[in-house]
C-alpha cells in the first residue's frame, strides 16, 4: 500500500524509528475509523458487511467529485459525504440485508454472499461510470503538507484524520451510552425480540445502525481521498485490513476496533522498517494469527 | 440406512455416469476452441468447488483461502518440472500431498477458531503466502514462471495444438471429486462432518472425534484443489502469484457451491455449469464493450440467488430437498 506522499525507506536510526512509529500511530487511528462501522454493524446484528471496502471506495469517489466539480475541499465535504453515506447504508440495509437476515437456511452464507455480491456490483458500477483510471485530489487544504512536532514530521492529512478518529470514537461512545437511540441500539443488540415489546422497531434500529456505520466509513473515506489514489478496486486493499482490525479487537467491540486499529498501524510501520515494503501487510496478518491463536475471540471480544 | 437414501444414492450414481458420458461426447459436436475453453474451465471449477465443498459445505469450516492450495499445486508442479525436470504427474502428486499436509498443519492451529475468526484466518494465511511468493526470487517472484514447452505428450502433460486432452483431464478430475464426495457422504466421515457442522458439542459428546474429522476433511479438500492447481498450471502454461494464488480463486471456488447449494452433492456441479459459462460469456461479450458491466451482471446474480434461494439452486429440484440441508 503506497501513499502518494510516502517517503522512501530511511536508515534505521532512533529518529527514523520514532518517526515511523508516529506515522504508524496516525495511520492506525485512521484504520480504526475505517473499521469501526464494521464493528458497530457486527455488534448490532452479527452481520459482517463484505462490501465494507466498497463503501470506503464510493466515499472516496464522492469526495473526489465534490472537489472536481464544486471545488469543495475534502475537509468541508467530509460531513456531506458522511451524511450521504448514512442514507446509502440505511438503503442497503432495507434493500438487501433485511432480506438476507430472513434466510431460514445457511443464514451466515447468505449474509456473506449477498453483501459480497453488492461489493462486486459496486465495483462494476465504479468501473462503468468512473473508468478504472487512478484519480487523486491534487490540491487541498491539507494534502502534501506536514507539521513538525518536536522534530518529528507528521503528514497533515493523517494527523487530522487521527484527531477526527479520536473525536468520532468519543462521540460514538457518548452517543451509544447517553442518547435514547444509543440505548435502543444497545437494547436491540442484546435482545432483538424483546425490544419489540417496548415499542422499538427493530428494522428501524438496524437501518439506523447501518446508516451510522456507513457514515463513519464516509468520514474516513473523505480523509483517505486527500492522500490516497482513488480507483474502483481501492476498497479491496483496505477491506482486509478492516476485517483484521475488527477481528483483532474482537468482533462487535467498538472499543476493540479502536485498539485494533492502533495495533495494526503500529505493526505495519514496524514491519515496513524491517521487511521490504511489499511485505508490509505480512506483519499485520501474522499478528492477527498470533492473537487469535492465543485468544480465539480477539483481544476484547466477549460472547 | 433407510431405503430411500440407498435408492437416491444409486440414482445419483447413474445420473452422474450419464452426465459424464454426455460430457465425454461433447467434443464430437463442439469444435470451437473458445467454447471448448469454457467447457474446460467449467469442469475445473466444478471439481474445485466440489473439493471446497467437502471442508466448507459438509464439515462447515468455511474457508476463503483455498487459493493457497490451488497455488501450491500449480507452483509445486511448475517448479519441479522447470528446476528438476520432474514430470508433471509426479509434481501433481507432490503438490497434492504437500497441500494436504499443510492443510492439516494449518487446521491444527485454526480449527479452534469459530465463525468469522476462522474465515478471516483462512484469508490471511493465503494472503501471507501470496505475498511471500511475490518476493521469492527462486520461484520467479512477481514475474512468475513460464513453463518450458517440450512438445505435445501425455507424459509431460503438455499440449499446444489441441485443447481436448485438457478437456478430458478436467472431466476426469470433476468426476473424481464428485465420486469422492458421493462416497464420503455415506461414510463414517460424512456423518461425522454433518454432526460437527450442526452441533460440534453434541457431536463430541456422542463420540465423534471432532478435531480429527475436521483434519480429514481439510486434507482431502486441499489435496483435490492442489491437483486442480497443477492442472491449471499445465493448461495455461504460465503462472504468477496473483494468477494462481489470488483471493479471486478462493471466491471462484466457493461461489458455484454456494449458489448451487452448499453442503450438497450436486450443488457445485450445478453452480459451476451455470456460473462459469455466464462469467466467461459476460466477460467476452459485454465486458469488452461496456467496462464493468460483466461485474454488475455477475454481482446482481449473486445477490438475487443468495437472497431468493438460500439453499441454492438444487432446492429448485424437489426430489433433492431432503438432501439439500
Task: Walk me through this protein's architecture.
The complex is a heterodimer of chains A (303) and B (325). Chain A has 303 residues and is mainly α. Chain A has one domain: ABC transporter involved in vitamin B12 uptake, BtuC. Chain A is 72% helix and 3% strand. Chain A contains 11 helices and 2 strands, in the order ααααββααααααα. In chain A, helix 1 runs parallel beside helix 5, helix 1 packs antiparallel against helix 8 and helix 2 packs antiparallel against helix 3. The N terminus of chain A is likely disordered. By secondary structure, chain B is mostly helical. Chain B has a single domain, classed as ABC transporter involved in vitamin B12 uptake, BtuC (Orthogonal Bundle). Chain B has a two-stranded antiparallel ribbon. Chain B is globular, with a radius of gyration of 19 Å. Chain B starts with a helix and ends in a 17-residue tail after the last helix. The C terminus of chain B is likely disordered. Classes of the chains: A mainly alpha (303), B mainly alpha (325). Chains A and B meet through helix 3, helix 4, helix 9 and helix 11 of A and helix 5, helix 11 and helix 13 of B.
Keyphrases for this structure?
heterodimer; A: mainly alpha; 11 helices; 72% helix; globular; B: 325 residues; mainly alpha; ABC transporter involved in vitamin B12 uptake, BtuC; two-stranded antiparallel sheet; disordered C terminus
Amino acid at each position: 500500500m503506497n501513499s502518494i506522499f510516502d517517503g522512501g525507506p530511511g536508515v534505521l536510526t532512533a529518529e527514523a524509528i520514532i518517526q515511523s512509529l508516529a506515522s504508524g500511530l496516525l495511520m492506525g487511528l485512521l484504520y480504526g475509523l475505517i473499521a469501526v462501522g464494521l464493528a458497530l454493524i457486527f455488534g448490532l446484528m452479527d452481520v459482517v458487511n463484505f462490501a465494507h471496502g466498497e463503501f470506503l471506495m464510493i466515499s472516496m469517489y464522492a469526495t473526489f467529485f465534490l472537489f472536481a466539480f464544486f471545488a469543495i475541499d475534502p475537509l468541508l465535504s467530509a460531513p456531506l459525504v458522511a451524511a450521504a453515506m448514512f442514507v446509502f447504508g440505511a438503503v442497503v440495509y432495507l434493500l438487501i440485508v433485511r432480506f438476507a437476515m430472513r434466510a431460514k437456511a445457511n443464514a451466515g452464507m447468505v449474509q456473506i454472499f449477498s453483501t459480497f455480491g453488492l461489493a462486486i456490483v459496486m465495483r462494476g458500477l465504479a468501473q462503468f461510470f468512473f473508468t478504472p483510471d487512478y484519480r487523486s485530489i491534487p490540491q487541498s487544504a491539507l494534502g502534501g503538507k506536514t507539521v513538525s512536532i518536536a522534530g518529528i514530521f507528521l503528514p497533515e492529512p493523517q494527523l487530522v484524520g487521527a484527531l477526527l478518529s479520536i473525536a468520532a470514537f468519543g462521540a460514538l461512545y457518548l452517543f451509544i451510552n447517553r442518547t435514547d437511540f444509543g440505548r435502543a441500539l444497545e437494547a436491540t443488540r442484546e435482545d432483538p425480540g424483546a425490544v419489540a415489546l417496548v415499542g422499538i422497531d427493530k428494522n428501524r434500529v438496524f437501518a439506523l445502525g447501518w446508516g451510522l456505520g456507513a457514515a463513519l466509513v464516509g468520514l474516513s473515506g473523505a480523509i483517505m481521498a486527500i492522500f490516497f489514489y482513488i480507483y474502483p478496486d481501492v476498497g479491496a486493499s483496505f477491506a482486509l485490513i478492516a476485517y483484521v482490525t475488527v477481528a483483532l479487537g474482537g468482533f462487535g467491540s467498538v472499543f476493540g476496533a479502536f485498539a485494533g486499529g492502533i495495533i495494526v498501524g503500529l505493526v505495519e510501520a514496524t514491519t515496513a522498517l524491517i521487511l521490504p515494503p511489499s511485505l508490509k501487510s505480512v506483519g499485520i496478518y501474522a499478528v492477527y494469527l498470533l492473537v487469535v491463536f492465543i485468544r480465539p475471540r480477539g483481544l476484547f471480544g466477549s460472547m | 440406512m433407510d431405503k430411500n437414501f440407498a435408492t437416491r444414492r444409486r440414482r445419483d450414481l447413474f445420473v452422474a455416469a450419464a452426465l459424464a458420458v454426455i460430457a465425454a461426447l461433447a467434443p464430437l459436436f463442439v469444435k470451437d476452441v473458445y467454447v471448448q475453453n469454457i467447457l474446460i474451465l467449467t469442469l475445473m471449477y466444478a471439481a474445485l468447488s466440489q473439493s471446497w465443498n467437502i471442508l466448507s459445505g459438509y464439515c462447515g469450516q468455511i474457508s476463503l483461502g483455498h487459493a493457497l492450495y490451488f497455488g501450491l499445486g500449480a507452483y509445486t508442479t511448475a517448479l519441479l518440472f522447470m528446476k528438476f525436470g520432474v514430470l508433471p504427474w509426479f509434481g501433481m502428486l507432490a503438490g497434492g500431498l504437500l497441500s494436504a499436509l499443510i492443510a492439516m498443519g494449518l487446521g491444527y492451529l485454526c480449527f479452534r477458531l469459530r465463525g468469522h475468526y476462522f474465515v478471516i484466518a483462512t484469508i490471511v494465511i493465503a494472503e501471507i503466502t501470496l505475498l511471500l511468493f511475490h518476493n521469492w526470487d527462486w520461484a520467479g517472484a512477481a514475474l512468475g514462471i513460464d513453463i518450458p514447452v517440450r512438445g505435445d505428450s501425455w507424459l509431460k502433460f503438455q499440449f499446444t495444438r489441441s485443447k481436448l486432452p485438457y478437456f478430458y483431464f478436467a472431466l476426469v478430475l470433476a468426476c473424481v471429486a464428485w465420486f469422492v464426495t458421493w462416497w464420503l457422504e455415506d461414510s463414517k466421515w460424512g456423518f461425522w462432518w454433518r454432526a460437527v457442522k450442526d452441533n460440534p458439542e453434541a457431536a463430541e459428546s456422542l463420540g465423534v472425534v471432532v478435531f480429527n474429522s475436521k483434519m480429514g476433511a481439510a486434507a482431502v479438500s486441499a489435496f483435490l484443489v492442489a491437483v486442480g492447481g497443477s492442472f491449471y498450471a499445465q493448461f495455461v502454461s504460465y503462472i504468477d502469484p496473483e494468477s494462481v494464488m489470488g483471493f479471486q480463486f478462493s471466491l471462484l471456488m466457493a461461489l458455484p457451491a454456494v449458489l448451487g447449494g452448499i453442503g450438497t452433492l450436486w450443488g457445485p456441479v450445478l453452480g459451476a455449469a451455470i456460473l462459469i459459462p455466464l462469467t466467461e460469456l459476460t466477460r467476452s461479450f459485454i465486458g469488452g464493450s461496456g467496462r464493468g458491466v460483466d461485474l454488475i451482471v455477475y454481482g446482481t446474480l449473486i445477490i438475487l440467488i443468495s437472497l431468493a434461494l438460500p439453499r441454492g439452486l438444487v432446492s429448485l429440484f424437489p426430489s433433492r430437498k431432503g438432501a439439500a440441508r
